Amino acid sequence: MARDEHRSKGLTASTVGHALLLAPFVFFFIVFEIVPMIWVAVNSLYVEEEQVWGLGNFAEILGDEFFLQSFSNSLSLSFWSAFIGLVISAFAAASLQKVPGRMREWMVSFTNMTSNFAGVPLAFAFIIILGFNGSLTLLLKQWGIIDSFNVYGIQGLMLIYTYFQIPLGILLLFPAFSALKPEWEEAAFTMGASRLEYWRRVAIPVMLPALLGTLTILFANAMGAYASAYALTVGNYNLVTIRIGQLVVGDIFFQPNMAAALSVLLIVILSFVTAVYRFLLRRSYHAA
Questions:
Q1: What is the model's pLDDT at position 58?
Q2: Of the four listed, 76, 247, 260, 278, which is most buried by Cβ atoms within 10 Å?
Q3: Which of 228, 266, 232 is nearest to 247 (CA)?
Q4: Phi and psi at residue 151, in whole multiples of 5°?
Q5: Which positions ≥6 away from 183 have C-beta within 8 Å?
Q6: What dihedral do alpha carbons 87, 88, 94, 99 form, nearest 10°?
Q7: Averaged over 172-196, what is the pLDDT?
Q8: pLDDT in tens, 219-235
Q9: pTM of the model
Q10: HSE on the CB side for 244, CA within 13 Å?
């Protein structure tokens, strides 16, 4: 009895100690995540023009074609950049598994470094390389490969979004590809399966939860991107994040409550995408 009581006291002390270690994280999470989210949700319900509380901001957004276009552009750009980035990063992560140990570690470190190259510096690099007078643009024109390329429009945004998706996708998928055992591939080949059949029937079903999760994260990463898109287009392309920024900082139209309503709708969209991912994840586990 005394031993059990001593053990229970030890477990209690250990639990309290772990809780105290988590306290700073919980504090910063509440201060910088929960409190701002509550502030945004509350202020989105205040209609500043009429000085009343209600759903007027949401009604104006859903009835304004300009705001709806910003959501349409953001959703399209985020999905396609996430999908293309997922395909490229999947091939890259699978190829890294075949690279020798030292070289593989160097490549993973390089990928980790390039994943932090985003925002204004990335947009500046794209302008220097692919702008109207960019080095690569002038070279391709000289060779007759392209007549014109507008890096400041949807083409440039698709390139820059896909570019910063690839390193993140590789880092997320690399551990998942490590779960594929070489014995599975050898067994499939022994039974007469081709490489395509192995990937279609064995590897992809095993990797499906990781692929879906990575696609969701890349989509959310693109939906929330602001600095690169603003620096590249100077705010001239209609995206949700650019609309929010201009409503908060706008020199002509300063409407923080409307920006809060846009932020709430953006949160709802990302929550819906996450819920769909979790549903598909459960389906894939049950199927397995």
A1: 92
A2: 260
A3: 266
A4: -75, -15
A5: none
A6: 180
A7: 82
A8: 999 998 898 899 888 88
A9: 0.83
A10: 22
Chain-centre distance of CA 41, in angstroms? 22
CA dist 31 → 24, 35, 262 (Å): 11, 5, 21
CA distance 18 to 106: 35
Say if strands 52-53 and 46-47 run parallel, antiparallel, or are unpaired. antiparallel
Tell me the one-letter amino acid at 264.
Answer: V
On the question of pLDDT at 2 being above 60, the answer is no
Residue length of the chain: 288
With a CB cutoff of 8 Å and minimum separation 6, the contacts of 250 are none
Helices 256-287 & 204-223 angle (0-180, nearest 10):
180
Res. 12 pLDDT band, cuts 50 70 90: low
Cβ-count burial of 79 within 10 angstroms (0-12 exposed, 13-18 middle, 19+ buried)? middle
Give the pair of three-digit tokens for residue 235.
């705010």
Q: Which two tokens stand for residue 101?
A: 């140990």
* Structure tokens given for 128: 């220097």
pLDDT single digits (tens) 28-48: 889 888 898 899 999 999 888
* Burial bucket for residue 270 (CB in 10 Å: 0-12, 13-18, 19+): middle
